[in-house]
C-alpha cells in the first residue's frame, strides 16, 4: 500500500474541505469508472496510466475515509490488497458494491461486508438503491433506526482500534432506538478534521493520551488552530489537553455529545471546567454503561416534545364539542364534496387539528408542558437563553420584541432599508426613530449594510447632546436579503463601549441556518452574545481593558477620531449583554410557512423584560395558533440539531458548485456575472483584502480569513448575478424567462440583478438544472444577437447601456420634518414616526402631489418642505424610500423617476404622492 502523504495536492491536504462530500462522491465514481476501463483495456501503455490514476484516487480516498466509519480501515486494507495483487476485476466489483452502498446509504441499515463478492451481496446493494429511488430519500423510511457515528479519540494501534470497534458493536441490541458505528482517530488535529468532514459524527469519546499532530498536512485547520502550538500542547496534562480539544469541538459543532474517559484522578478532573462533557468515565467503566449513556444523550436531542404529544393526541378517540368542525377531520370525512382535501393532504393532518390545550397538548400563550419543553430545546439548539415559537411569521416576531422593549419616546437606531415590519413596529411602539444609512451599491440598485463607523458616529452624537440615556436599541438586519453579513461581535462590542446597556435586535430572518456551520456561527447574535459574556468575565479581558483605557484616556475625547478611528472596548463592570434575534425558521430550515422563532440572550430579561415580553407576546399571538406550525418548528429544531451541520454544509457546497461554473464557463460569463466579495463589500470594509472566496488553483480557501476579520462579508449561499448584459431587467427576467419558461422560482431582483439562494433542500440535480437553463438562455441571447437587424441590435445595445450605465444613485434618508422632531433645534436626527403616521388618518391633513408632471417639483422650488404622509416602497428594492414625516428630497424624486418598476406601494400614479398640507405641518398635534 502506498504511503498516504498529504502534501502533494490541495485535495489530499483537504484544502477543499468546503466541498469535501462532493469530492468524496465524485472521486469514488471516478475510481469505479477507471477500474471499469482498466479491466476492459488491452493497451498496456494506457493501462499503466490508468493504474497510476487509480493509485492516486485510492490514496486520496484513504485520507477522506480515515474519518468515516464506512468504509472502515479494514475495508481499505482489503482494497489496497486487491490493488497490490493486481486483481483489478475483483477490485472493480468491490468498489461497485461500495459505491452502491454509499449512494443507497445501506451501510446505515445493515453491515456491508466488502469481502463478500457473491451475487446475493450485490443484489442487496441493488435492492437498497432501488428502495432509495422509490422512497425519494432513505431518511423518509421512518421505521428504520436512525444511524450515527461515534468518534473515539485515542492513540490506538490498528489491532486495538479493531478491539474497541468490535466491543461497541457487541453492545448493540435490536431494541435500541439508534444504531451507530465507530470512527477512531489518533491525534488532536485528526479529531478536529473528523468533526469537520464527517457529518455522521454525533458523539465523541475522548480517551487517554493522544498526540497533537496528524500524519496528514491538514491545511483546512489553519484558521481553527491559531494560537495553539504542538509544543504548548505537549506541555499540558492529559486532562488539560482533553478539555481544550472538547472546547474546540464544541466551537465547531456544539451539538455533538462529548464524553471523557480518563485514566487519572477522575474526581480531580471532574472539578475542572468540563462544561462541554456530558459525563466523565473512569477507565474501568464498562462498555455497556458507555453505550447506554451515549444513546441516552442522542435521544435527548432526537426528542420532539410537542410533535410527539400531537401524534399521541391524534390517535386518541375523542368527542369534539368545541369550535373547529374540521377537528379530527369530521367535517371532511362526512362530506360528499370536500373529500379531495383528505386525498391531497392525508388524514393525519386533520386528526391532529384541534384547538384543545389539554389531553397531553399545551398552550402557546402560556406553555407548561410539551410546548414549553420544545422551546427549551430550541434555546439549546440555537444557543439562546430563552426561545419562543411564533406562528404568524417574523413580521410579528419583530413587533413582539419591539413592543416588549421600547416605550414611547425611546430612541431606536435602525437601518433604513430593513424589513417593513420594523418600520411599522416603530409606529406601534411610538419610538423616536433615528435612521441609519447603509452603504450603497449604485451599480446594482441595492444597498449593502450600515458601516460600524456610521453607528458609532450616531451614538457619539447622542452622547455629546446629553441624550444617550434615551437611546434604547440598535436594530440591524443580518444577513441582508442580498447576503451581506455583519461582524456581529465587533458591532456589539464597540457600541457597548459607548452605551454599555444598549439592546440589540438582530433581524436574522434569512440566517436561521447559520448557527449550524462553524464558519457562519460566529456572526450570529446568540453566539456573539455568549462569547462576549464569557470574554467580559475573564481576567484576561480585564487586563486588556485596563491597558486600552489607559491609552484611550490620554487622547482627546472631543476629537471624533478618538472614537471613530480605533476599536473601542466596554467597561467590564458596566457592560450588560442584551441581544435578541428573530428567525424566519421557515425560510432557511424545516418549518411550515410562517413558522418563526424569537431567541433571547439578555442578562436583564428576568428583571426588566419578562413581564412586558409576555404582554407583547399575548398582544400579537393568536389565541388559536396553528398546531401544525408549532409541530413543524419542533421537528425543524430536532433536524437542525441532528443533521443541521450536514445539511448546511451541503447547501454551501451546492452554492459553491454553482458559483464555480458561473465563474469559469465562457458563455455564461458573457451574459451573467456573479457578484463576488469585492463587488458587494467596498475595500474599506474588507480588512482581509480578500476579493473573492474562490481561486481556480487553490479552490475555496479564503473564506475563513474574510469571515474571521472583515467588517462585512458575503454569504456564498446567496448568489447575486448581474444580468445587465442581457438587456433584460431583473423583474422581466424573473417572470418571463425563469418562471414562465422553465419553472424556476426566485423572489429577489433589482433593476439589473437576480438573486439565487440555495437552501438545505437544494440538490446537485437542482444546481445542474439551473445551469442548464442559464446556458440555454445564454445561447438564446447569442442567437438573438446573431439574427438581429441593425436597428434591433441598436435597441439591444441601448437596453444594455441603460441597465449597466444609466443607474440612478440610491438616495440616503433625507430628514424628518421639524414638526415631527422631538428636539427640532437639536443636532440629533430622530423623528416621531407614530405622530406622522396617525396625523395622515385625517383627510384634511393630506393632499396628493404628482411628480411625473412636475407639480411636486414646482412646490419644492418655492421653498416648501414637501413631507411624505405615508410609506413609499418600490418593489424592487422593497424597502421604504419615504416614511411618514420624512422630507422629500431631490435625490429621492430622481430615484423614483428613474425606476422602471410597476409596483410602488404608497404611490398612486393617477394621484401622486400622499403628502402633508402646509397647514397640518404648522399645527401638528403633540404627544
From TrEMBL:
This is Arginine decarboxylase. Residues 304-529, 580-764 form the Orn/Lys/Arg decarboxylases family 1 pyridoxal-P attachment site domain. PANTHER family: AMINO ACID AMINOTRANSFERASE, BLR3474 PROTEIN. Keywords: Aminotransferase, Transferase. The keyword Transcription does not apply. InterPro entries: LL-DAP_aminotransferase, Orn/Lys/Arg_deCO2ase_major_dom, PyrdxlP-dep_Trfase, PyrdxlP-dep_Trfase_major. Coiled coil: none annotated. One of its GO terms (molecular function) is transaminase activity. The keyword Glycosyltransferase does not apply. Its cofactor is pyridoxal 5'-phosphate.
Amino acid at each position: 500500500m502506498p504511503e498516504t502523504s498529504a502534501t502533494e495536492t490541495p485535495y489530499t491536504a483537504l484544502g477543499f474541505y468546503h466541498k469535501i462530500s462532493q469530492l468524496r462522491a465524485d472521486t469514488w465514481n471516478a475510481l469505479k469508472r477507471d477500474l471499469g476501463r482498466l479491466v476492459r483495456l488491452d493497451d498496456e501503455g494506457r493501462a499503466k496510466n490508468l493504474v497510476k490514476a487509480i493509485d492516486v484516487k485510492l490514496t486520496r480516498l484513504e485520507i477522506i475515509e480515515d474519518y468515516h466509519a464506512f468504509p472502515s480501515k479494514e475495508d481499505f486494507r482489503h482494497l489496497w490488497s486487491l490493488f497490490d495483487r493486481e486483481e483489478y476485476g475483483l477490485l472493480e466489483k468491490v468498489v461497485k458494491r461500495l459505491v452502491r452502498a454509499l449512494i443507497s446509504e445501506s451501510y446505515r441499515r445493515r453491515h456491508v461486508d466488502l469481502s463478500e463478492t457473491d451475487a446475493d451481496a450485490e443484489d442487496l446493494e441493488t435492492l437498497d438503491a432501488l428502495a432509495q429511488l422509490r422512497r425519494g430519500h432513505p431518511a423518509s423510511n421512518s421505521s428504520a433506526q436512525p444511524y450515527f457515528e461515534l468518534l473515539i479519540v485515542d492513540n490506538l494501534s490498528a489491532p486495538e482500534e479493531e478491539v474497541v470497534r468490535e466491543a461497541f458493536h457487541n453492545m448493540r441490541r435490536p431494541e435500541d432506538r439508534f444504531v451507530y458505528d465507530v470512527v477512531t482517530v489518533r491525534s488532536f488535529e485528526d479529531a478536529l478534521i473528523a468533526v469537520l468532514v464527517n457529518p455522521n459524527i454525533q458523539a465523541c469519546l475522548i480517551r487517554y493520551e493522544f498526540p497533537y499532530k496528524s500524519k496528514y498536512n491538514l491545511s483546512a485547520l489553519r484558521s481553527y488552530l491559531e494560537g495553539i502550538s504542538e509544543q504548548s500542547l505537549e506541555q499540558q496534562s492529559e486532562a488539560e489537553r482533553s478539555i481544550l480539544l472538547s472546547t474546540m469541538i464544541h466551537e465547531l459543532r456544539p451539538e455533538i455529545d462529548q464524553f471523557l474517559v480518563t485514566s487519572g484522578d477522575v474526581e480531580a478532573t471532574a472539578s475542572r471546567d468540563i462544561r462541554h462533557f456530558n459525563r466523565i468515565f473512569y477507565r474501568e467503566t464498562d462498555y455497556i454503561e458507555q453505550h447506554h449513556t451515549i444513546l441516552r444523550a442522542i435521544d435527548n436531542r432526537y426528542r420532539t416534545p410537542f410533535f410527539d404529544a400531537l401524534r399521541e393526541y391524534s390517535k386518541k378517540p375523542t368527542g369534539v364539542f368545541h369550535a373547529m368542525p374540521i377537528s379530527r377531520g369530521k367535517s371532511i370525512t362526512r362530506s360528499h364534496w370536500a373529500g379531495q382535501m383528505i386525498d391531497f393532504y392525508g388524514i393525519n393532518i386533520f386528526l391532529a387539528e384541534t384547538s384543545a390545550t389539554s389531553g397531553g397538548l399545551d398552550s402557546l400563550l402560556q406553555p407548561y408542558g410539551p410546548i414549553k419543553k420544545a422551546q427549551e430545546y430550541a434555546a439549546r439548539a440555537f444557543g439562546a437563553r430563552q426561545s419562543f415559537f411564533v406562528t404568524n411569521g417574523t413580521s410579528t416576531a419583530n413587533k413582539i420584541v419591539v413592543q416588549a422593549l421600547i416605550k414611547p419616546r425611546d430612541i431606536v437606531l435602525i437601518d433604513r432599508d430593513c424589513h417593513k415590519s420594523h418600520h411599522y413596529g416603530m409606529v406601534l411602539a411610538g419610538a423616536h426613530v433615528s435612521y441609519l444609512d447603509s452603504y450603497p451599491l449604485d451599480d446594482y440598485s441595492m444597498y449593502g449594510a450600515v458601516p460600524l463607523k456610521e453607528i458609532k458616529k450616531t451614538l457619539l452624537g447622542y452622547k455629546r447632546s446629553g441624550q444617550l440615556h434615551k437611546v434604547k436599541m440598535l436594530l440591524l438586519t443580518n444577513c441582508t436579503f442580498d447576503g451581506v453579513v455583519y461582524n456581529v461581535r465587533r458591532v456589539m462590542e464597540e457600541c457597548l463601549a459607548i452605551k454599555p446597556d444598549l439592546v440589540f435586535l438582530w433581524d436574522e430572518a434569512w440566517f436561521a441556518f447559520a448557527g449550524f456551520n462553524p464558519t457562519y456561527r460566529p456572526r450570529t447574535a446568540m453566539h456573539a452574545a455568549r462569547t462576549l459574556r464569557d470574554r467580559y468575565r475573564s481576567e484576561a479581558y480585564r487586563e486588556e481593558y485596563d491597558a486600552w483605557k489607559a491609552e484611550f484616556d490620554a487622547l482627546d475625547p472631543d476629537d471624533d477620531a478618538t472614537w471613530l478611528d480605533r476599536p473601542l472596548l466596554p467597561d467590564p463592570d458596566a457592560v450588560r449583554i442584551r441581544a435578541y434575534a428573530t428567525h424566519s425558521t421557515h425560510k432557511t430550515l424545516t418549518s411550515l410557512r410562517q413558522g418563526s422563532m424569537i431567541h433571547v440572550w439578555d442578562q436583564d430579561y428576568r428583571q426588566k423584560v419578562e413581564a412586558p415580553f409576555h404582554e407583547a407576546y399575548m398582544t400579537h399571538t393568536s389565541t388559536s395558533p396553528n398546531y401544525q406550525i408549532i409541530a413543524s418548528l419542533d421537528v425543524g429544531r430536532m433536524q437542525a440539531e441532528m443533521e443541521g451541520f450536514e445539511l448546511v454544509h451541503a447547501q454551501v457546497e451546492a452554492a459553491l458548485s454553482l458559483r464555480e461554473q458561473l465563474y469559469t464557463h465562457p458563455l455564461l460569463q458573457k451574459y451573467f456575472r456573479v457578484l463576488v466579495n469585492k463587488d458587494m463589500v467596498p475595500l474599506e470594509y474588507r480588512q482581509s483584502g480578500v476579493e473573492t472566496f474562490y481561486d481556480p488553483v487553490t479552490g475555496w480557501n479564503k473564506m475563513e480569513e474574510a469571515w474571521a476579520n472583515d467588517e462585512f462579508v458575503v454569504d456564498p449561499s446567496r448568489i447575486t448575478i448581474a444580468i445587465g448584459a442581457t438587456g433584460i431587467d431583473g423583474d422581466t427576467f424573473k417572470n418571463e424567462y425563469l418562471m414562465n419558461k422553465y419553472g424556476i422560482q426566485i423572489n429577489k431582483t433589482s433593476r439589473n440583478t437576480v438573486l439565487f439562494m440555495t437552501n438545505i433542500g437544494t440538490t446537485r440535480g437542482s444546481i445542474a438544472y439551473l445551469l442548464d437553463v442559464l446556458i440555454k438562455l445564454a445561447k438564446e441571447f447569442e442567437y438573438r444577437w446573431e439574427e438581429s437587424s441593425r436597428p434591433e441590435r441598436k435597441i439591444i445595445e441601448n437596453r444594455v447601456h441603460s441597465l449597466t450605465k444609466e443607474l440612478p444613485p440610491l438616495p440616503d434618508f433625507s430628514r424628518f420634518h421639524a414638526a415631527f422632531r422631538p428636539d427640532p433645534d437639536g443636532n440629533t436626527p430622530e423623528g416621531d414616526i407614530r405622530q406622522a403616521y396617525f396625523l395622515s388618518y385625517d383627510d384634511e391633513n393630506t393632499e396628493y402631489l404628482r411628480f411625473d408632471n412636475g407639480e411636486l417639483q414646482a412646490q419644492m422650488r418655492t421653498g416648501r418642505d414637501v413631507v411624505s404622509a405615508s410609506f413609499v416602497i418600490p418593489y424592487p428594492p422593497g424597502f421604504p424610500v419615504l416614511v411618514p414625516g420624512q422630507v422629500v428630497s431631490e435625490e429621492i424624486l430622481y430615484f423614483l423617476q428613474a425606476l422602471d418598476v410597476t409596483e410602488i406601494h404608497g404611490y398612486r400614479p393617477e394621484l401622486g404622492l400622499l403628502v402633508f398640507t402646509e397647514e397640518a405641518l404648522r399645527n401638528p398635534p403633540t404627544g
